[in-house]
Design a protein that fits this description.
single chain; alpha/beta; Leucine-rich repeat, LRR (right-handed beta-alpha superhelix); 4 domains; 21-stranded mixed sheet; five-stranded parallel sheet; 20 helices; 27% helix; membrane; disulfide bond
């Protein structure tokens, strides 16, 4: 049974994970400047023994950069009033890797502003009134930043006719660049010039402000290694025919506004992008305004990307009017695996998903549509969909077939809706591992839903989130709470529920709440039913008690009848036995049997022992093997330890030996016990205590001399007739310490009472 997970358990897990990193999360006033906050970084071998500091001086109304110690690792100075970076300000910070000085008032940089920062990896200069000219950004300003990988210099004041290419060309290891397009550049100007040929590691470009950005066949001719391009909402673009020639390694592109937004620029853009190796395309707020003659982006995308390599397509924050036509709707391109269409205010969505594996429709208005139809237009064919997110869609109920044919589904997110019950069918989704129903209005599951989830849990480790729902704890929902406690499904739920009158009831243990609810729901009719059940149960218990009293006799006769020994006449000691003794022991004590018993009894004294690991017949039932072994052995020796009592088969062997002595050996005792460790009498079964009272036991000694006497007594016991098995071991009472602890007469008197 899977343990149930409440909000408290979840909080404990989160706190535990958080506390493991609590040293990193504590920010304290810095010693060198009380306006700044510092936290230390755990020492790392590659960093040396010096303790490094993360320093946060953001939003402190600073006008100058404070004096910093040499062990600063990262520094945030954003949202201050800093106007300049003086020469050699950071020259002593040899471990400095990240500087954020965004949202300040710097109008220019000095040649030696970053002198000494040879290990700096990230530099953020965004949102400063810098202009793109030599006075504001000198040609040699970045010369010292030989390790820089990420530079942010957008949302500045990009007045000028060109980028600061000379300064940028010094950054040989640059991987990511955020920059504005100069406002005064003309369409004929080459934006990224020849000097940028040196940026052979540049893979990511984020374009900020621009008046107009026209991507042509030579736009990125000198940035041939670009794989990711992000164009800000403040930049209007146009992708011209032939642009794909400068995008030979493109992997992902994110676009907002097109110039002269109509069918032709978008169609041209998709045509060019389909000729590149691009795998991810993002359109955010691309069509945010309605038109009298709307164009439909999906039609353009579905047709234009057919045969392309695009696997990820995102259309978010768009106007639904310009996304899908009302009539003919083209299926998803075959290459598309992920489709994200969040925050588009969609009121209908029914698409032939083709090969889509991940569908995200979060934050739309699909509630009324999904009440009657499914999002998958073709449900008769095998779907490859694995992930569906239709959260925040104002859903009150779903058509039962909404997930029909989705056999590969693994994740369903229905959170932040208004669901009151489980109306949908996911019985075909045997691989479902997560169903998020949090933040809905669910009061309980019906029996069909519980049965459906139980069936899924047989083939998948299903988890259901029920946090922040209106779970009720009434007589009608009692079966639901019992299901939560007993099911294999992992259920996350809050430690509160609503009573029949709407009162919020807080609880810690679901089991205790169930017990309280059972008492509340007890009525007269239920009382009569319970009394009837009790009477029937009493009769069954009485019959069961009679059967239980003779259970071992019944079991013994049953297994004996199954075995090849079907003779029920009393045996005598003159009968020929296959073995001198059957050894009953727990697997934890096999070393004693292998190293001691076999050596002393078989090898030294020529007794033939029956051991289950060695002498049981393969392919035979173990119970039949045990019965046969006891029946074919003159004696049964039990190696008694605490593990012996815990072993089902050890106790089975002991009881079968008792039945053998009573019903097949004319009540002659064939059992005696060897205690390998001291065990209190109160920890022994009653039937075993009877043998102990008859002195049919011996305790294994811990000294060499005692061991000699011990094995002689075992030898004596195995050689005597069955009638003489109850020999007294008074000669070894030094080792039989159990007798000295508690008088057995007292124990039996106590048990009889």
């Amino acid at each position: 049974m899977a343990s149930k997970i409440t909000l408290e358990h979840l909080a404990i897990v989160i706190v535990t994970v958080f506390c493991q990193n609590v040293v990193l999360a504590i920010w304290l006033p810095c010693d060198f400047n009380e306006k700044c906050r510092c936290n230390s970084i755990p020492q790392d071998a590659k960093m040396g023994r010096e303790v490094l500091l993360n320093v946060d001086c953001s939003n402190r109304k600073l006008k100058d950069i404070p004096a910093l110690p040499s062990n600063v690792y990262t520094l945030s100075l954003k949202k201050n009033n800093i106007k300049r970076i003086n020469d050699d300000t950071f020259s002593q910070l040899r471990n400095f890797t990240e500087l954020d000085i965004s949202y300040n008032k710097m109008t220019r940089l000095n040649i030696f502003s970053f002198n000494g920062l040879s290990n700096l990896l990230i530099l953020n200069l965004n949102n400063n009134p810098l202009t793109y000219n030599k006075n504001a950004i000198p040609n040699e300003v970045f010369k010292s930043l030989i390790s820089l990988k990420h530079l942010c210099i957008r949302n500045v004041f990009p007045i000028g006719s060109s980028l600061p290419e000379v300064a940028l060309s010094k950054l040989k290891l640059l991987e990511s660049l955020e920059i504005d397009i100069p406002l005064s550049m003309t369409p004929r100007t080459v934006i990224f010039g020849k000097r940028l040929d040196s940026l052979v590691h540049l893979e990511t470009l984020k374009v900020g402000q621009c008046l107009f950005f026209e991507i042509k066949n030579d736009t990125f001719f000198h940035l041939v290694h670009l794989t990711n391009i992000y164009i800000d909402i403040l930049c209007v673009i146009s992708i011209r025919p032939g642009a794909h020639y400068s995008l030979t390694k493109l992997h992902k592109i994110e676009i907002h506004f097109f110039s002269n937004y109509d069918i032709f620029p978008i169609r041209d853009a998709i045509k060019e992008l389909s000729l590149t190796p691009v795998q991810a395309i993002v359109f955010k707020k691309t069509c945010s305004h309605g038109r009298e003659d709307p164009i439909y982006m999906w039609t353009t995308l579905a047709l234009g990307l057919n045969g392309s390599s695009v696997k990820y397509l995102e259309l978010t924050d768009n106007n639904p009017v310009c996304l899908f036509p009302v009539s003919k709707l083209y299926p998803a391109p075959p290459s598309l695996l992920t489709l994200k269409m969040s925050s588009n205010k969609l009121e209908r969505f029914a698409l032939e998903l083709t090969n889509i594996q991940k569908l995200i429709l979060r934050d739309n208005n699909l509630g009324n549509f999904l009440r009657l139809k499914s999002f998958n237009k073709r449900t008769e064919r095998n779907s490859k969909l694995e992930y569906v997110d239709i959260s925040e869609n104002n859903i009150y109920t779903l058509i039962p077939s909404v997930f029909q044919g989705q056999a590969e589904l693994r994740y369903i997110n229905l959170s932040h809706n208004h669901l009151q019950e489980i109306s949908f069918d996911v019985s075909q989704s045997n691989n479902l591992s997560l169903l998020d129903l949090s933040n809905n209005s669910i009061s309980a599951f019906d029996q069909n839903s519980m049965r459906m989830f139980d069936n899924i849990s047989l083939t998948s480790n299903l988890t259901i989130y029920l946090l922040n729902n209106s779970l009720q704890c009434t007589c009608k929902t009692l079966i639901f709470w019992k299901w939560i406690v007993g099911t294999r499904v992992n259920v996350f739920f809050d430690r509160r529920c609503l009573s029949a009158d709407g009162t919020v009831i807080q609880f810690i243990s679901a089991n205790k709440r169930i017990q309280e609810l059972e008492k509340e729901c007890l009525s007269y009719d239920m009382f009569i039913i319970i009394v009837s059940i009790v009477l029937v149960a009493t009769l069954i218990c009485f019959v069961g008690a009679v059967v239980y009293k003779y259970r071992w006799k019944l079991r013994y006769m049953f297994y004996l009848a199954k075995s090849k020994h079907r003779r029920h006449e009393t045996s005598t000691d003159s009968k020929h036995y296959v073995y001198d003794a059957f050894i009953s022991y727990c697997e934890h004590d096999n070393l004693f049997v292998i190293n001691d018993c076999i050596q002393n009894l078989e090898m030294d004294r020529n007794f033939k022992l029956c051991l289950h690991q060695r002498d049981f017949l393969p392919g035979e039932e173990i119970t039949t093997n045990i019965t046969n072994a006891i029946h074919e052995s003159r004696k049964t020796i039990c190696i008694v330890t605490k593990n012996f009592f815990d072993s089902y088969y050890c106790m089975f062997e002991f009881n079968m030996a008792r039945m053998e002595s009573i019903y097949s050996r004319d009540k002659r005792n064939i059992i005696f016990l060897i205690f390998l460790e001291q065990i209190l009498p109160q920890n022994m079964p009653l039937m075993l205590l009877e043998l102990v009272q008859k002195d049919s036991y011996i305790e294994y000694p811990n000294d060499e001399q005692g061991a000699i006497v011990f094995w002689e007594k075992i030898d004596e016991a195995l050689q005597v007739d069955d009638r003489e098995t109850d020999v007294s071991f008074t000669e070894t009472e030094t080792y039989c310490k159990l007798q000295e602890k508690i008088p057995y007469e007292y124990l039996f008197d106590e048990q009889e009472s």
